[in-house]
Amino acid sequence: MSEKKLVLKAIKGDEDAFLELIHSYEEALYRTAISYLKNEGDALEAVQEVTYRAYRSIKTVKEPAYFKTWLIRIMMNYCQDVIKKSKREMLEERIIGMQGVSEDFTFLEVEEALLNLSEYERELLHLKYFEDVKIKDIAVMWNTPEGTIKTRLHKALRAFRNQFEEKGEVKRV
Amino acid sequence: MFEEEEKKLEQRKKTIDKVEVPMDKLHFAVRNGFEKAKKERILKRKKIIKRSTWSFVVAAILLISFITSINVSPAFANKVASIPGLDRIVALIQQDKGLVAAIENDFYQPINKSQEKNGITVTLDGVIADKKGMIIFYSVKTEEVDVNSLGLKYLALWSKNYGEGERWEFIKSAPPLTPNQDSHFNSGTMHIEKVTHKKDLSWKIGLQIGEKIENFKIPFTYKTMDVESKDIIVNKEVTVYGQHFKVMDLIVDPIRTVVRIEEDPSNTKKLLACPFDELELVDELGRKWSTLPCNAYKPLEKGNVWEVPLKESFYFYDPKKLTLTFGKIAAMEKDEAHILIDTNAKVFLEQPSKSIFSNLQVVDNRGSFIVQVEKDYDMNMVYFNKFKDANEKEFYLYYGGRIPLVSNYVKGSMINISEVEKKIEFDLPIKSFTNPLRFDLDFYPSWIEEDVLVEIK
Questions:
Q1: Is A30 on the interface with B (CB under 8 A)?
Q2: Which of A7, A54, A159, B163 has the fewest CB atoms within 10 Å around its CB?
Q3: What is the interface pTM, i.e. ipTM, of the complex?
């Protein structure tokens, strides 16, 4: 069955269709959660919660073609809330804990920089560079002209860059 | 233009893509979220059991709303007047003659540190700590909302050096702080039987306000009372309804008295959860000490020794005579203390002779049965936390909340379907298992009773 048909069935309340869809995106959801929360337990809890929220609000899916992104956005919202609530220090500890995963020394800096962006900017960067969603599709989904999205993306990247530069300046002092 | 930034983000994606995904736990999380949503739809009216754990609860949390004007002894009244902040929690202390004595003997340490968030002020009033444990006194005050509408989500004693320390979470439910109406003030205590980490301590409380949880964290330091525990050696054997026990001793500390009882391994009955809830001590003046309900536990799971903590301690009293009575002891025949289920044939192969289990069903890899109990039996006691297959492979039942650390768990659920009936459901393990499944009973509406009196001293 095509994804579109599955989504349409799920919207109508078909449980099996819904579960099939979620299972096919659970890994993507998990990776998004990990990228925000850095911890297996919290990421699993996030997947659980997002499944719950998705099922509750499945009727709000407007465009079946963007179902996956719809899910990812619920996840991003959830993660942002968790980050807001949880103590920043805790998150930093986790990022350090995850460093073992990466041999790249900039990992911590990158995470730190992302944490300082606005929710909107982070969401945009995540969609573009983590989920590989095309600018054109983001524009359609958010009902915003493509040019505007491009401008905002540049702004987000600049803000991201500034995080490093600011840090550098502090070091120079 | 932003090549470097794009490279960084792509590198980040690569790093996170390398993180291993725990597939079975992930499936489970999805399933669980789905079940939760579905259940909410179907069972909106049916009450879902909120209890999370029952035995081996080594903590007692007393929630008492603040009621003033109780008669006080002059010595105690003096202390209340001289220790700042003590007036807030005086009602809490007066419930416990052991604590009153501890305060009269200068064992209370005032702390009086507060944290305020969104109009709610949480105060760590003070502590009493001996070598074994600690009692934390706290108050919650708010003018904005009725304290009654706040729920207690968790209490924790947190040590910076070791990450999380002792913590009690009320996983699904947040019990109301106080059942009283129209109050702006509430006090409570948190009893910790054994403080394991003592460095850089903080006390934490989570309060539920509607959908939101407000977290408070108050760092503090304290001194341990420098007093030795008194050990009253008893070593008396006693037979209750044909079952042999030995009352070993009483270990008396300022904040807690524990009675240690050994059960004879050759007994034909198995002790169930909360076995000694009616145990009582009486001294020569008729003063009584009863147990903390459901707090008796075996420090060694496979051992035969039970520790039964009493509600109040008598460290500062010196009873001349003490007698112990057992009351009803929760116990059932060892041979009968389990149910055996064949999920293929969908039958109970074995169950107690006067069984409370019925209506076994297995549909779509889900088993369920009904538990029937008398009205006055606490239905929340009926609880399984694991089962075993024919090869002794264990599967833990997970009823929600934080996902367990073990991987061999399956989802379970409990639904009260009437005042006397409860449905227990469990998923069959995804991994292979061998029938039959054995559920050991740790609760059962079954007791033994005989008038037996043990002279302690």
A1: yes
A2: B163
A3: 0.82
The answer to whether the pTM exceeds 0.80 is no
For chain A, say whether B199 makes contact (Cβ under 8 Å). no
Please give the full DSSP string across A79-136, using - where no structure is assigned: HHHHHHHS-HHHHHHHHHHHGGG---TTHHHHHHHHHTS-HHHHHHHHHHHTS---HH
Whether residue A35 lies within 8 A of chain B, CB to CB, comes out as: yes
- Strand-pair partners of B233: B249
Tokens of A88: 């920043």
User: Residue B200 to residues B179, B197, B218, B219: CA-CA distances in angstroms?
Assistant: 34, 9, 11, 7
Domains of chain B: 74-219 (2.60.40), 230-334+447-455 (2.60.40.1240), 338-440 (no CATH)
| Partners of B358 in the β-ladder | B370
A57/B contact by beta carbon, under 8 A: no
List residues bridging with B289 in a β-sheet: B281
CA distance B24 to chain A (A): 11
Q: Nearest CA of chain B to the CA of A120: how many Å?
A: 16
Q: What percentage of chain B has pLDDT greater than the value 70?
A: 82
Kindly report the CA angle at B221 between B218 and B222, in degrees rounded to 5? 125
Residue-range domains of chain A with CATH: 1-101 (1.10.1740.10), 103-172 (1.10.10.10)
Return the structure tokens found at B87: 């007036």
Out of B6, B15, B33, closest to residue A129 by CB: B6
Smallest CA–CA distance from B41 into chain A, residue: A56
| Chain B: closest CA distance from residue A144 (Å) | 23
What mean pLDDT do residues B22-29 have? 86
Q: Do A44 and B26 touch (CB under 8 A)?
A: yes
